[in-house]
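Hi P.,

Sorry for the delay on this. The queue was packed all week, but I finally got your sequence through. Input first:
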Amino acid sequence: MSDEEKMIADEQMIEEEFQGLLQDYLNSNHRRKVDVITRAYNMAKEAHKGARRRSGEPYIMHPLAVARIVSREMGLGSTSISASLLHDVVEDTDYTVDDIRALFGDKIAQIVDGLTKISQGMFGENVSAQAENFRKLLLTMSDDIRVILIKIADRLHNMRTLSSMSPTKQFKITGETLYIYAPLAHRLGLFAIKTELEELCFRYEHPEVYADLTAKIAESAPERNKIYDNFAVPVIAALDKMGIEYEMRARVKSVYSIWNKMQNKGISFNEVYDLFAVRIIFEVHPGMDEKKQCWDIYSAITDIYKLRPDRIRDWVSHPKSNGYQALHLTVMGPDGKWIEIQIRSRRMDDIAEKGFAAHWKYKENRIEEDNELDKWLKTIQEILANPNPNAIDFLDTVKMNLFSSEIFVFTPKGEIKTLPQGATALDFAYTIHTRIGDHCLGAKVNHTLVPLSQQLRSGDQVEILTSQSVNPQPEWLNFVTTAKARTKIEASLRRQRRRIIEKGKNMLEELFDNEPIDNTLFNKILHSYKAENKEDLYYMIGNNEVILPVQKEALSKLKPVPEKQENLFVRYMKQAMIAIKKTPQEPHKMLLNENESEDENLLLSQE
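Then the structure:
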Protein backbone atom coordinates (compact mmCIF):
# COMPACT_ATOMS: atom_id res chain seq x y z
CA MET A 1 0.00 0.00 0.00
CA SER A 2 1.41 3.39 -1.00
CA ASP A 3 1.72 6.27 1.48
CA GLU A 4 -1.18 8.05 -0.21
CA GLU A 5 -3.40 4.95 -0.02
CA LYS A 6 -2.44 4.47 3.63
CA MET A 7 -3.34 8.11 4.38
CA ILE A 8 -6.74 7.71 2.69
CA ALA A 9 -7.36 4.46 4.62
CA ASP A 10 -6.40 6.19 7.90
CA GLU A 11 -8.74 9.11 7.21
CA GLN A 12 -11.59 6.73 6.45
CA MET A 13 -10.93 4.74 9.64
CA ILE A 14 -10.83 7.92 11.73
CA GLU A 15 -14.04 9.29 10.18
CA GLU A 16 -15.88 6.00 10.73
CA GLU A 17 -14.85 5.98 14.39
CA PHE A 18 -16.01 9.57 14.86
CA GLN A 19 -19.36 8.85 13.20
CA GLY A 20 -19.70 5.83 15.51
CA LEU A 21 -19.10 8.12 18.49
CA LEU A 22 -21.77 10.56 17.31
CA GLN A 23 -24.22 7.69 16.82
CA ASP A 24 -23.53 6.43 20.35
CA TYR A 25 -24.22 9.91 21.68
CA LEU A 26 -27.38 10.44 19.63
CA ASN A 27 -28.72 7.08 20.87
CA SER A 28 -28.40 8.26 24.49
CA ASN A 29 -30.86 10.27 26.55
CA HIS A 30 -28.60 13.33 26.71
CA ARG A 31 -29.41 16.69 25.18
CA ARG A 32 -28.14 17.01 21.61
CA LYS A 33 -24.91 19.01 21.74
CA VAL A 34 -23.19 17.63 18.65
CA ASP A 35 -21.51 20.96 17.88
CA VAL A 36 -19.24 20.99 20.96
CA ILE A 37 -18.24 17.34 20.41
CA THR A 38 -17.41 18.06 16.76
CA ARG A 39 -15.29 21.08 17.71
CA ALA A 40 -13.43 19.05 20.33
CA TYR A 41 -12.82 16.28 17.79
CA ASN A 42 -11.49 18.74 15.18
CA MET A 43 -9.13 20.32 17.72
CA ALA A 44 -7.85 16.94 18.95
CA LYS A 45 -7.41 15.67 15.37
CA GLU A 46 -5.38 18.73 14.43
CA ALA A 47 -3.33 18.64 17.65
CA HIS A 48 -2.38 14.96 17.21
CA LYS A 49 -1.86 15.21 13.44
CA GLY A 50 0.99 12.95 12.30
CA ALA A 51 1.33 11.28 15.73
CA ARG A 52 0.98 7.50 15.97
CA ARG A 53 0.56 5.02 18.78
CA ARG A 54 2.96 2.12 19.35
CA SER A 55 0.51 -0.08 17.46
CA GLY A 56 1.05 2.09 14.38
CA GLU A 57 -2.47 3.50 14.19
CA PRO A 58 -3.09 7.29 14.15
CA TYR A 59 -2.99 8.68 17.68
CA ILE A 60 -6.42 10.30 17.36
CA MET A 61 -7.92 6.79 17.42
CA HIS A 62 -7.09 6.58 21.13
CA PRO A 63 -9.05 9.67 22.32
CA LEU A 64 -11.89 8.62 20.00
CA ALA A 65 -11.95 5.18 21.61
CA VAL A 66 -11.90 6.70 25.11
CA ALA A 67 -14.77 9.02 24.17
CA ARG A 68 -16.81 6.04 22.90
CA ILE A 69 -16.26 4.17 26.19
CA VAL A 70 -17.34 7.27 28.10
CA SER A 71 -20.47 7.62 25.96
CA ARG A 72 -21.55 4.04 25.29
CA GLU A 73 -20.27 2.13 28.31
CA MET A 74 -20.60 4.83 30.98
CA GLY A 75 -23.52 6.81 29.59
CA LEU A 76 -21.92 10.25 30.11
CA GLY A 77 -22.79 13.37 28.10
CA SER A 78 -21.24 15.96 25.80
CA THR A 79 -18.98 17.60 28.41
CA SER A 80 -17.32 14.29 29.30
CA ILE A 81 -17.13 13.20 25.65
CA SER A 82 -15.46 16.47 24.64
CA ALA A 83 -13.01 16.28 27.56
CA SER A 84 -12.21 12.68 26.56
CA LEU A 85 -11.36 13.76 23.03
CA LEU A 86 -9.07 16.49 24.41
CA HIS A 87 -7.59 14.55 27.36
CA ASP A 88 -4.06 14.19 25.89
CA VAL A 89 -3.91 17.52 24.05
CA VAL A 90 -2.31 19.57 26.86
CA GLU A 91 0.16 16.84 27.84
CA ASP A 92 1.31 15.87 24.33
CA THR A 93 1.01 19.08 22.27
CA ASP A 94 1.66 22.82 22.49
CA TYR A 95 -1.92 23.64 23.46
CA THR A 96 -2.53 24.84 27.03
CA VAL A 97 -5.43 24.56 29.46
CA ASP A 98 -6.09 28.27 28.82
CA ASP A 99 -6.47 27.53 25.10
CA ILE A 100 -9.09 24.89 25.91
CA ARG A 101 -10.82 27.22 28.36
CA ALA A 102 -11.05 29.95 25.72
CA LEU A 103 -12.61 27.56 23.19
CA PHE A 104 -14.74 25.28 25.39
CA GLY A 105 -15.31 27.03 28.71
CA ASP A 106 -14.37 26.31 32.33
CA LYS A 107 -15.99 22.87 32.84
CA ILE A 108 -14.21 21.08 29.99
CA ALA A 109 -10.95 22.92 30.73
CA GLN A 110 -11.12 21.91 34.40
CA ILE A 111 -11.63 18.25 33.53
CA VAL A 112 -8.76 18.26 31.01
CA ASP A 113 -6.54 20.00 33.56
CA GLY A 114 -7.40 17.33 36.14
CA LEU A 115 -6.60 14.56 33.66
CA THR A 116 -3.27 16.21 32.82
CA LYS A 117 -2.31 16.34 36.52
CA ILE A 118 -2.80 12.59 36.93
CA SER A 119 -1.37 11.60 33.55
CA GLN A 120 1.70 10.04 35.15
CA GLY A 121 1.60 6.58 36.72
CA MET A 122 0.47 5.98 40.29
CA PHE A 123 3.45 3.82 41.30
CA GLY A 124 6.21 6.27 42.18
CA GLU A 125 9.82 5.53 43.03
CA ASN A 126 9.04 5.45 46.75
CA VAL A 127 6.18 5.51 49.23
CA SER A 128 6.11 9.32 49.42
CA ALA A 129 5.85 9.62 45.64
CA GLN A 130 3.02 7.08 45.59
CA ALA A 131 1.22 8.96 48.35
CA GLU A 132 1.53 12.22 46.42
CA ASN A 133 0.24 10.58 43.25
CA PHE A 134 -2.73 9.17 45.17
CA ARG A 135 -3.39 12.59 46.65
CA LYS A 136 -3.52 14.13 43.18
CA LEU A 137 -5.90 11.39 42.06
CA LEU A 138 -8.23 11.97 45.00
CA LEU A 139 -8.10 15.74 44.58
CA THR A 140 -9.25 15.45 40.98
CA MET A 141 -12.03 13.07 42.08
CA SER A 142 -13.22 15.50 44.72
CA ASP A 143 -13.18 18.41 42.25
CA ASP A 144 -15.12 16.63 39.50
CA ILE A 145 -15.87 12.90 39.53
CA ARG A 146 -15.93 12.90 35.72
CA VAL A 147 -12.13 13.21 35.77
CA ILE A 148 -11.67 9.76 37.28
CA LEU A 149 -14.40 8.27 35.09
CA ILE A 150 -12.57 9.45 31.96
CA LYS A 151 -9.27 8.24 33.44
CA ILE A 152 -10.79 4.79 33.96
CA ALA A 153 -12.01 4.82 30.34
CA ASP A 154 -8.50 5.85 29.24
CA ARG A 155 -7.01 2.97 31.23
CA LEU A 156 -9.55 0.51 29.81
CA HIS A 157 -8.58 1.36 26.24
CA ASN A 158 -4.89 1.16 27.11
CA MET A 159 -5.51 -2.30 28.58
CA ARG A 160 -7.41 -3.37 25.46
CA THR A 161 -4.40 -2.38 23.33
CA LEU A 162 -1.67 -3.47 25.76
CA SER A 163 -0.16 -6.07 23.41
CA SER A 164 1.79 -3.33 21.58
CA MET A 165 3.66 -2.40 24.79
CA SER A 166 6.94 -3.84 26.03
CA PRO A 167 6.75 -6.53 28.77
CA THR A 168 8.15 -4.08 31.35
CA LYS A 169 5.49 -1.50 30.50
CA GLN A 170 2.81 -4.19 30.51
CA PHE A 171 3.81 -5.29 34.01
CA LYS A 172 3.69 -1.71 35.38
CA ILE A 173 0.34 -0.93 33.75
CA THR A 174 -1.34 -4.17 34.86
CA GLY A 175 -0.12 -3.64 38.43
CA GLU A 176 -1.58 -0.14 38.59
CA THR A 177 -4.79 -1.29 36.93
CA LEU A 178 -5.41 -4.25 39.23
CA TYR A 179 -4.68 -2.43 42.48
CA ILE A 180 -6.00 1.06 41.71
CA TYR A 181 -8.25 1.42 38.68
CA ALA A 182 -10.22 -1.84 38.94
CA PRO A 183 -11.11 -1.17 42.62
CA LEU A 184 -12.03 2.42 41.73
CA ALA A 185 -14.25 1.20 38.90
CA HIS A 186 -15.90 -1.19 41.35
CA ARG A 187 -16.41 1.59 43.90
CA LEU A 188 -18.02 3.78 41.24
CA GLY A 189 -20.38 0.98 40.27
CA LEU A 190 -18.78 0.26 36.87
CA PHE A 191 -19.09 -3.50 37.30
CA ALA A 192 -18.68 -4.46 33.64
CA ILE A 193 -15.57 -2.28 33.27
CA LYS A 194 -14.14 -3.48 36.58
CA THR A 195 -14.57 -7.10 35.46
CA GLU A 196 -12.92 -6.46 32.08
CA LEU A 197 -9.97 -4.64 33.69
CA GLU A 198 -9.38 -7.55 36.09
CA GLU A 199 -9.72 -10.05 33.27
CA LEU A 200 -7.21 -8.25 31.05
CA CYS A 201 -4.72 -7.88 33.91
CA PHE A 202 -5.00 -11.56 34.73
CA ARG A 203 -4.49 -12.52 31.09
CA TYR A 204 -1.21 -10.58 30.91
CA GLU A 205 0.10 -11.45 34.37
CA HIS A 206 -0.78 -15.19 34.29
CA PRO A 207 -1.17 -16.11 30.60
CA GLU A 208 -0.83 -19.89 31.09
CA VAL A 209 -3.29 -20.07 33.99
CA TYR A 210 -5.70 -17.82 32.11
CA ALA A 211 -5.56 -20.05 29.01
CA ASP A 212 -6.03 -23.21 31.10
CA LEU A 213 -9.07 -21.86 32.99
CA THR A 214 -10.62 -20.45 29.79
CA ALA A 215 -10.37 -23.89 28.19
CA LYS A 216 -11.93 -25.58 31.24
CA ILE A 217 -14.83 -23.09 31.26
CA ALA A 218 -15.44 -23.80 27.57
CA GLU A 219 -15.32 -27.58 28.16
CA SER A 220 -17.89 -27.33 30.96
CA ALA A 221 -20.35 -25.29 28.84
CA PRO A 222 -22.59 -28.22 27.73
CA GLU A 223 -23.14 -29.43 31.30
CA ARG A 224 -23.67 -25.84 32.47
CA ASN A 225 -26.25 -25.18 29.78
CA LYS A 226 -28.11 -28.35 30.72
CA ILE A 227 -28.22 -27.30 34.41
CA TYR A 228 -29.55 -23.86 33.44
CA ASP A 229 -32.19 -25.21 31.06
CA ASN A 230 -33.53 -27.65 33.67
CA PHE A 231 -33.61 -24.86 36.25
CA ALA A 232 -35.26 -22.28 33.98
CA VAL A 233 -38.32 -24.21 32.76
CA PRO A 234 -40.48 -24.04 35.95
CA VAL A 235 -39.21 -20.53 36.81
CA ILE A 236 -40.26 -19.18 33.38
CA ALA A 237 -43.70 -20.76 33.80
CA ALA A 238 -44.14 -19.17 37.25
CA LEU A 239 -43.01 -15.68 36.18
CA ASP A 240 -45.12 -15.76 33.02
CA LYS A 241 -48.14 -16.69 35.12
CA MET A 242 -47.48 -13.63 37.31
CA GLY A 243 -47.58 -11.40 34.23
CA ILE A 244 -44.10 -10.02 34.81
CA GLU A 245 -42.17 -8.49 31.89
CA TYR A 246 -38.62 -9.77 32.30
CA GLU A 247 -35.56 -11.32 30.75
CA MET A 248 -33.59 -14.20 32.28
CA ARG A 249 -30.13 -15.36 31.32
CA ALA A 250 -27.20 -17.32 32.69
CA ARG A 251 -23.97 -15.37 33.06
CA VAL A 252 -20.63 -17.18 33.43
CA LYS A 253 -18.40 -15.60 36.05
CA SER A 254 -15.10 -14.06 34.99
CA VAL A 255 -11.92 -16.13 34.79
CA TYR A 256 -10.28 -13.80 37.31
CA SER A 257 -13.09 -14.17 39.90
CA ILE A 258 -13.05 -17.97 39.50
CA TRP A 259 -9.27 -18.06 39.96
CA ASN A 260 -9.57 -15.76 42.99
CA LYS A 261 -12.09 -18.10 44.59
CA MET A 262 -9.82 -21.08 43.93
CA GLN A 263 -6.89 -19.27 45.56
CA ASN A 264 -8.81 -17.95 48.57
CA LYS A 265 -10.54 -21.24 49.36
CA GLY A 266 -7.76 -23.58 48.28
CA ILE A 267 -10.03 -25.55 45.92
CA SER A 268 -9.75 -26.91 42.39
CA PHE A 269 -11.72 -25.75 39.34
CA ASN A 270 -14.08 -28.71 39.65
CA GLU A 271 -14.92 -27.71 43.23
CA VAL A 272 -16.17 -24.23 42.26
CA TYR A 273 -19.93 -24.71 42.46
CA ASP A 274 -21.01 -21.26 41.26
CA LEU A 275 -19.36 -20.97 37.85
CA PHE A 276 -22.38 -19.08 36.62
CA ALA A 277 -25.23 -17.00 38.01
CA VAL A 278 -28.78 -16.59 36.75
CA ARG A 279 -29.79 -12.97 36.30
CA ILE A 280 -33.46 -11.93 36.19
CA ILE A 281 -34.06 -8.34 35.00
CA PHE A 282 -37.67 -7.13 35.20
CA GLU A 283 -39.60 -4.05 34.12
CA VAL A 284 -41.40 -2.33 36.99
CA HIS A 285 -45.17 -2.35 36.60
CA PRO A 286 -46.60 1.21 36.63
CA GLY A 287 -47.81 2.08 40.12
CA MET A 288 -46.16 -1.00 41.65
CA ASP A 289 -43.41 -0.93 44.28
CA GLU A 290 -40.04 -1.93 42.82
CA LYS A 291 -38.81 -3.64 45.99
CA LYS A 292 -42.05 -5.61 46.33
CA GLN A 293 -41.64 -6.95 42.80
CA CYS A 294 -38.14 -8.16 43.68
CA TRP A 295 -39.50 -10.07 46.67
CA ASP A 296 -42.45 -11.40 44.65
CA ILE A 297 -39.99 -12.96 42.19
CA TYR A 298 -37.94 -14.26 45.13
CA SER A 299 -41.07 -15.93 46.56
CA ALA A 300 -41.95 -17.51 43.21
CA ILE A 301 -38.47 -19.07 42.92
CA THR A 302 -38.25 -20.27 46.54
CA ASP A 303 -41.68 -21.90 46.16
CA ILE A 304 -40.05 -24.11 43.50
CA TYR A 305 -36.51 -24.63 44.80
CA LYS A 306 -34.90 -25.10 48.24
CA LEU A 307 -33.29 -21.89 49.53
CA ARG A 308 -29.83 -21.69 51.09
CA PRO A 309 -30.58 -19.14 53.88
CA ASP A 310 -26.97 -18.13 54.58
CA ARG A 311 -26.53 -16.93 50.98
CA ILE A 312 -29.30 -14.28 50.87
CA ARG A 313 -27.94 -10.81 50.10
CA ASP A 314 -30.50 -8.00 50.27
CA TRP A 315 -28.88 -5.16 48.34
CA VAL A 316 -32.37 -3.91 47.41
CA SER A 317 -33.25 -2.55 50.84
CA HIS A 318 -29.64 -1.68 51.67
CA PRO A 319 -27.72 -0.63 48.52
CA LYS A 320 -23.94 -0.89 48.40
CA SER A 321 -21.92 2.31 48.63
CA ASN A 322 -21.43 2.31 44.85
CA GLY A 323 -25.20 2.43 44.33
CA TYR A 324 -25.52 -1.28 43.45
CA GLN A 325 -28.94 -2.81 44.15
CA ALA A 326 -30.08 -6.39 43.64
CA LEU A 327 -31.53 -9.31 45.54
CA HIS A 328 -29.14 -12.28 45.60
CA LEU A 329 -30.14 -15.78 46.63
CA THR A 330 -28.83 -19.31 46.17
CA VAL A 331 -31.13 -22.32 45.63
CA MET A 332 -30.70 -26.03 45.06
CA GLY A 333 -31.46 -26.72 41.38
CA PRO A 334 -33.20 -29.82 40.00
CA ASP A 335 -29.79 -31.41 39.27
CA GLY A 336 -28.70 -31.13 42.92
CA LYS A 337 -26.40 -28.17 42.17
CA TRP A 338 -26.44 -24.85 44.01
CA ILE A 339 -27.43 -22.00 41.68
CA GLU A 340 -26.95 -18.29 42.43
CA ILE A 341 -29.75 -15.95 41.28
CA GLN A 342 -29.61 -12.15 40.97
CA ILE A 343 -32.93 -10.30 40.80
CA ARG A 344 -32.83 -6.70 39.49
CA SER A 345 -35.16 -4.14 38.00
CA ARG A 346 -34.14 -2.50 34.73
CA ARG A 347 -33.09 0.58 36.70
CA MET A 348 -30.97 -1.51 39.06
CA ASP A 349 -29.33 -3.28 36.14
CA ASP A 350 -28.50 0.02 34.44
CA ILE A 351 -26.86 1.30 37.63
CA ALA A 352 -25.01 -2.01 38.12
CA GLU A 353 -23.49 -1.82 34.63
CA LYS A 354 -22.94 1.93 34.17
CA GLY A 355 -22.50 2.89 37.78
CA PHE A 356 -22.16 6.51 38.75
CA ALA A 357 -23.64 8.08 35.61
CA ALA A 358 -26.75 5.90 35.67
CA HIS A 359 -27.12 6.46 39.40
CA TRP A 360 -27.33 10.21 38.92
CA LYS A 361 -29.59 9.87 35.89
CA TYR A 362 -32.16 8.00 37.99
CA LYS A 363 -31.57 10.18 41.03
CA GLU A 364 -32.89 13.20 39.11
CA ASN A 365 -36.34 11.60 39.19
CA ARG A 366 -36.19 10.16 42.70
CA ILE A 367 -35.81 11.53 46.21
CA GLU A 368 -32.93 9.69 47.86
CA GLU A 369 -31.91 10.52 51.40
CA ASP A 370 -28.48 9.83 52.82
CA ASN A 371 -27.30 8.01 49.69
CA GLU A 372 -24.34 5.66 50.23
CA LEU A 373 -22.54 6.78 47.05
CA ASP A 374 -22.71 10.39 48.24
CA LYS A 375 -21.27 9.28 51.60
CA TRP A 376 -18.38 7.52 49.89
CA LEU A 377 -17.56 10.59 47.81
CA LYS A 378 -17.62 12.60 51.05
CA THR A 379 -15.12 10.13 52.51
CA ILE A 380 -12.64 11.26 49.85
CA GLN A 381 -12.98 14.82 51.15
CA GLU A 382 -12.40 13.57 54.70
CA ILE A 383 -9.21 11.75 53.66
CA LEU A 384 -7.91 14.92 51.99
CA ALA A 385 -8.85 16.98 55.07
CA ASN A 386 -6.05 15.28 57.02
CA PRO A 387 -3.40 18.04 56.95
CA ASN A 388 0.02 16.38 56.53
CA PRO A 389 -0.26 12.65 57.15
CA ASN A 390 2.63 10.22 57.11
CA ALA A 391 2.90 8.74 53.59
CA ILE A 392 2.36 5.14 54.71
CA ASP A 393 -0.55 6.13 56.97
CA PHE A 394 -2.10 8.02 54.06
CA LEU A 395 -1.85 5.02 51.71
CA ASP A 396 -3.30 2.76 54.42
CA THR A 397 -6.20 5.18 54.88
CA VAL A 398 -6.86 5.21 51.13
CA LYS A 399 -6.75 1.43 50.98
CA MET A 400 -9.02 0.97 54.00
CA ASN A 401 -11.62 3.59 53.10
CA LEU A 402 -11.77 3.37 49.31
CA PHE A 403 -10.86 -0.17 48.37
CA SER A 404 -11.83 -2.43 51.26
CA SER A 405 -14.90 -4.63 51.54
CA GLU A 406 -17.91 -3.38 53.48
CA ILE A 407 -19.78 -4.52 56.56
CA PHE A 408 -23.32 -3.58 57.60
CA VAL A 409 -24.09 -3.02 61.26
CA PHE A 410 -27.25 -1.94 63.08
CA THR A 411 -28.02 0.84 65.56
CA PRO A 412 -30.25 -0.03 68.55
CA LYS A 413 -33.17 1.44 66.55
CA GLY A 414 -32.52 -0.91 63.63
CA GLU A 415 -30.91 1.63 61.28
CA ILE A 416 -28.17 0.21 59.05
CA LYS A 417 -24.72 1.80 58.88
CA THR A 418 -22.09 0.89 56.28
CA LEU A 419 -18.45 0.66 57.38
CA PRO A 420 -15.24 -0.67 55.83
CA GLN A 421 -14.21 -4.16 56.87
CA GLY A 422 -11.99 -3.96 59.94
CA ALA A 423 -13.87 -0.96 61.39
CA THR A 424 -14.13 -0.76 65.18
CA ALA A 425 -16.80 0.26 67.68
CA LEU A 426 -15.17 3.69 67.85
CA ASP A 427 -15.40 4.06 64.05
CA PHE A 428 -19.10 3.30 64.39
CA ALA A 429 -19.47 6.00 67.07
CA TYR A 430 -18.00 8.63 64.73
CA THR A 431 -20.26 7.39 61.93
CA ILE A 432 -23.27 8.27 64.09
CA HIS A 433 -22.02 11.78 65.03
CA THR A 434 -18.75 13.52 65.85
CA ARG A 435 -19.95 14.38 69.39
CA ILE A 436 -20.87 10.72 70.01
CA GLY A 437 -17.35 9.71 68.96
CA ASP A 438 -15.58 12.44 70.94
CA HIS A 439 -17.34 11.44 74.19
CA CYS A 440 -17.41 7.69 73.59
CA LEU A 441 -16.90 5.83 76.85
CA GLY A 442 -17.58 2.27 75.71
CA ALA A 443 -19.76 0.12 73.47
CA LYS A 444 -22.16 -2.79 73.59
CA VAL A 445 -22.08 -5.20 70.66
CA ASN A 446 -25.05 -7.55 70.61
CA HIS A 447 -25.81 -6.44 74.22
CA THR A 448 -22.30 -7.33 75.45
CA LEU A 449 -19.80 -4.73 76.71
CA VAL A 450 -16.73 -4.54 74.47
CA PRO A 451 -13.66 -2.25 74.25
CA LEU A 452 -13.70 0.65 71.78
CA SER A 453 -11.11 -1.21 69.71
CA GLN A 454 -13.49 -4.14 69.11
CA GLN A 455 -13.67 -4.93 65.37
CA LEU A 456 -17.23 -5.22 64.10
CA ARG A 457 -18.80 -7.84 61.85
CA SER A 458 -21.75 -7.65 59.49
CA GLY A 459 -25.03 -8.05 61.36
CA ASP A 460 -23.72 -6.72 64.69
CA GLN A 461 -26.03 -4.45 66.67
CA VAL A 462 -23.97 -1.69 68.26
CA GLU A 463 -24.88 0.65 71.11
CA ILE A 464 -22.50 3.46 72.09
CA LEU A 465 -22.10 4.59 75.71
CA THR A 466 -21.02 8.22 76.20
CA SER A 467 -19.84 10.53 78.97
CA GLN A 468 -19.19 14.28 78.78
CA SER A 469 -16.05 13.75 80.89
CA VAL A 470 -14.47 11.63 78.13
CA ASN A 471 -12.42 13.24 75.36
CA PRO A 472 -10.40 11.77 72.46
CA GLN A 473 -7.11 10.16 73.44
CA PRO A 474 -3.96 9.82 71.28
CA GLU A 475 -4.10 6.02 71.59
CA TRP A 476 -7.46 6.02 69.79
CA LEU A 477 -5.55 6.67 66.57
CA ASN A 478 -3.93 3.23 66.95
CA PHE A 479 -7.14 1.35 66.20
CA VAL A 480 -9.60 3.54 64.26
CA THR A 481 -9.76 2.80 60.52
CA THR A 482 -12.18 5.25 58.91
CA ALA A 483 -11.02 8.58 57.52
CA LYS A 484 -13.81 10.42 59.36
CA ALA A 485 -12.86 9.03 62.77
CA ARG A 486 -9.14 9.68 62.26
CA THR A 487 -9.70 13.24 61.01
CA LYS A 488 -12.07 14.12 63.86
CA ILE A 489 -9.81 12.63 66.56
CA GLU A 490 -6.74 14.44 65.23
CA ALA A 491 -8.68 17.73 65.04
CA SER A 492 -9.87 17.27 68.64
CA LEU A 493 -6.35 16.43 69.87
CA ARG A 494 -5.02 19.56 68.18
CA ARG A 495 -7.69 21.67 69.90
CA GLN A 496 -6.92 20.01 73.24
CA ARG A 497 -3.20 20.68 72.79
CA ARG A 498 -3.84 24.34 71.95
CA ARG A 499 -5.99 24.76 75.09
CA ILE A 500 -3.36 23.08 77.30
CA ILE A 501 -0.57 25.21 75.78
CA GLU A 502 -2.58 28.39 76.43
CA LYS A 503 -3.25 27.26 80.01
CA GLY A 504 0.44 26.52 80.63
CA LYS A 505 1.49 29.86 79.15
CA ASN A 506 -0.94 31.71 81.41
CA MET A 507 0.33 29.79 84.48
CA LEU A 508 3.94 30.74 83.76
CA GLU A 509 3.08 34.37 83.02
CA GLU A 510 1.06 34.63 86.26
CA LEU A 511 4.07 33.33 88.20
CA PHE A 512 6.10 36.25 86.79
CA ASP A 513 3.22 38.73 87.31
CA ASN A 514 2.84 39.01 83.54
CA GLU A 515 6.28 40.65 83.27
CA PRO A 516 8.55 39.67 80.33
CA ILE A 517 10.96 36.77 80.98
CA ASP A 518 14.45 37.45 79.64
CA ASN A 519 15.87 34.94 77.16
CA THR A 520 18.66 33.70 79.43
CA LEU A 521 16.24 32.77 82.19
CA PHE A 522 13.75 31.26 79.73
CA ASN A 523 16.49 29.06 78.25
CA LYS A 524 17.42 27.91 81.76
CA ILE A 525 13.77 26.95 82.37
CA LEU A 526 13.59 25.09 79.03
CA HIS A 527 16.80 23.19 79.80
CA SER A 528 15.78 22.37 83.37
CA TYR A 529 12.42 20.91 82.31
CA LYS A 530 13.94 19.22 79.23
CA ALA A 531 11.57 21.01 76.86
CA GLU A 532 12.47 21.37 73.19
CA ASN A 533 10.75 24.73 72.70
CA LYS A 534 8.27 27.18 74.21
CA GLU A 535 5.17 25.25 73.10
CA ASP A 536 6.49 22.03 74.64
CA LEU A 537 7.21 23.84 77.90
CA TYR A 538 3.76 25.44 78.04
CA TYR A 539 2.16 22.05 77.25
CA MET A 540 4.10 20.31 80.02
CA ILE A 541 3.08 23.01 82.52
CA GLY A 542 -0.57 23.08 81.41
CA ASN A 543 -0.79 19.27 81.44
CA ASN A 544 0.72 19.10 84.97
CA GLU A 545 3.71 17.14 83.69
CA VAL A 546 5.95 19.61 85.55
CA ILE A 547 5.08 21.59 88.68
CA LEU A 548 6.07 25.24 88.84
CA PRO A 549 7.52 26.56 92.12
CA VAL A 550 5.44 28.86 94.29
CA GLN A 551 7.98 31.70 93.99
CA LYS A 552 9.51 32.83 90.70
CA GLU A 553 12.88 33.35 92.43
CA ALA A 554 13.28 29.57 92.56
CA LEU A 555 13.49 29.52 88.78
CA SER A 556 16.25 32.15 88.81
CA LYS A 557 18.39 29.73 90.84
CA LEU A 558 18.25 27.02 88.15
CA LYS A 559 21.58 25.85 86.76
CA PRO A 560 22.78 27.80 83.72
CA VAL A 561 22.56 26.12 80.34
CA PRO A 562 25.96 24.47 79.62
CA GLU A 563 27.77 25.62 76.52
CA LYS A 564 27.46 23.22 73.64
CA GLN A 565 30.55 21.11 73.04
CA GLU A 566 31.87 21.77 69.58
CA ASN A 567 31.91 18.75 67.35
CA LEU A 568 35.48 17.43 66.95
CA PHE A 569 35.19 17.32 63.16
CA VAL A 570 33.92 20.92 63.11
CA ARG A 571 36.88 21.99 65.28
CA TYR A 572 39.32 20.27 62.94
CA MET A 573 37.76 21.93 59.90
CA LYS A 574 37.85 25.37 61.51
CA GLN A 575 41.54 24.97 62.31
CA ALA A 576 42.14 23.62 58.82
CA MET A 577 40.60 26.71 57.25
CA ILE A 578 42.71 28.99 59.48
CA ALA A 579 45.84 27.08 58.49
CA ILE A 580 44.97 27.37 54.79
CA LYS A 581 44.72 31.14 55.12
CA LYS A 582 48.03 31.36 56.99
CA THR A 583 50.06 28.98 54.76
CA PRO A 584 48.76 29.22 51.18
CA GLN A 585 52.00 27.68 49.86
CA GLU A 586 51.18 24.40 51.66
CA PRO A 587 47.41 24.05 51.42
CA HIS A 588 47.52 20.28 51.87
CA LYS A 589 48.96 20.27 55.42
CA MET A 590 48.16 22.23 58.58
CA LEU A 591 49.11 21.80 62.22
CA LEU A 592 46.28 21.08 64.65
CA ASN A 593 48.25 21.53 67.87
CA GLU A 594 51.80 22.31 68.71
CA ASN A 595 52.03 19.22 70.88
CA GLU A 596 50.64 16.82 68.22
CA SER A 597 53.04 14.77 66.09
CA GLU A 598 53.18 15.17 62.32
CA ASP A 599 51.46 11.82 61.87
CA GLU A 600 48.43 13.21 63.69
CA ASN A 601 48.04 16.17 61.33
CA LEU A 602 44.87 16.37 59.29
CA LEU A 603 45.66 16.18 55.60
CA LEU A 604 43.34 17.67 53.02
CA SER A 605 43.66 15.96 49.67
CA GLN A 606 43.84 18.23 46.65
CA GLU A 607 42.81 15.43 44.28
